[in-house]
């Protein structure tokens, strides 16, 4: 049971984080802002999209304050992972719904910063995030948060629908056939917050794609579709698989779990 002091701290934390989200949201770009194209013709001066990143975080089953962040980079033409890195850390921030970015973004930003220093030639042209972008109570989820702070085009890819602005899965089914290839997610405000996407012909469950930063919804959906071998686009899927594997290794050795801060793959 929360004490009065703890309750006041909780309210103050939410207030500060809301203020910071609103400040960062002022830098958000919801249109294409990059020099590449998905498949430019030979006569087009734009460079083709080649490097697509994915990030995810997995948690220790025995201690939910211990998490493993994973960053992978794939060649979009082959779907092969050409770079992977991990960071295992104690997450000091509490989880508060709607403020996931303040808990998870520091470790993911550190992985991106490390890649930019050591292997800039492998730095992703666009980053897929296991989470939401503008499909969020304040229009600024983890994908948007990472995109603004790292100044990289980002796409939010969620397995479950975030019920915001009047959106709910039941109404989505009533208004559209959710088994269609794609269904726009239009809130009560009239804003298109994302797309319910049946990403693979064999999948009946949609994923929910939203703009993170520096990309339009149409382009975001096209990139996601190009990366789907299964229901979850490969960059996010590989980040999830590899972070889970790494956290199991870390959890199996308690001494490493306590002292280990970062691991980089060769």
From TrEMBL:
Top-rank taxon, per record: Eukaryota
Keyword Membrane set for record: no
Pfam families: Endonuclease_5 (PF04493)
Record key words, sorted: Cytoplasm, Endonuclease, Hydrolase, Nuclease
Gene3D superfamilies: archaeoglobus fulgidus dsm 4304 superfamily
Gene Ontology cellular-component terms listed: cytoplasm; nucleolus
Family annotation (CDD domains): Endonuclease_V
Subcellular location: Cytoplasm
Gene Ontology MF terms: RNA endonuclease activity producing 5'-phosphomonoesters, hydrolytic mechanism; single-stranded RNA binding
Endpoints of the signal sequence: none
Main location: cytoplasm
GO biological process: DNA repair
Protein name per Swiss-Prot or TrEMBL: Endonuclease V
Taxonomy of the source species: Eukaryota, Viridiplantae, Streptophyta, Embryophyta, Tracheophyta
């Amino acid at each position: 049971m929360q004490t009065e002091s703890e309750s006041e701290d909780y309210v103050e934390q939410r207030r500060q984080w809301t203020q910071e989200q609103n400040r960062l949201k002022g830098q958000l770009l919801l249109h294409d802002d990059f020099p590449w194209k998905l498949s430019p013709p030979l006569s087009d001066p734009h460079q083709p999209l080649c490097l697509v990143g994915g990030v995810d975080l997995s948690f220790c089953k025995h201690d939910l304050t211990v998490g493993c962040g994973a960053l992978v980079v794939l060649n979009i033409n082959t779907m092969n992972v050409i770079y992977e890195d991990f960071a295992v850390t104690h997450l000091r921030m509490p989880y508060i719904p709607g403020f996931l970015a303040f808990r998870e973004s520091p470790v993911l930003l550190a992985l991106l910063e490390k890649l930019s220093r050591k292997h800039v030639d492998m730095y992703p042209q666009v980053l897929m995030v296991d989470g939401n972008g503008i499909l969020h109570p304040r229009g600024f989820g983890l994908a948007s948060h990472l995109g603004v702070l790292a100044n990289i085009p980002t796409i939010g890819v969620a397995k479950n629908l975030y019920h915001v602005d009047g959106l709910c899965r039941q109404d989505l089914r009533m208004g559209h056939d959710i088994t269609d290839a794609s269904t726009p997610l239009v809130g009560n405000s009239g804003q298109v917050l994302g797309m319910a996407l049946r990403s693979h012909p064999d999948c009946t469950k949609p994923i929910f794609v939203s703009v993170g930063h520096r990309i339009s919804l149409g382009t975001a959906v096209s990139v996601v579709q190009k990366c789907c071998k299964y229901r979850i686009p490969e960059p996010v899927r590989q980040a999830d698989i590899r972070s889970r594997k790494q956290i199991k290794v870390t959890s199996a050795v308690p001494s490493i779990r306590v002292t280990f801060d970062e691991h980089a793959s060769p």
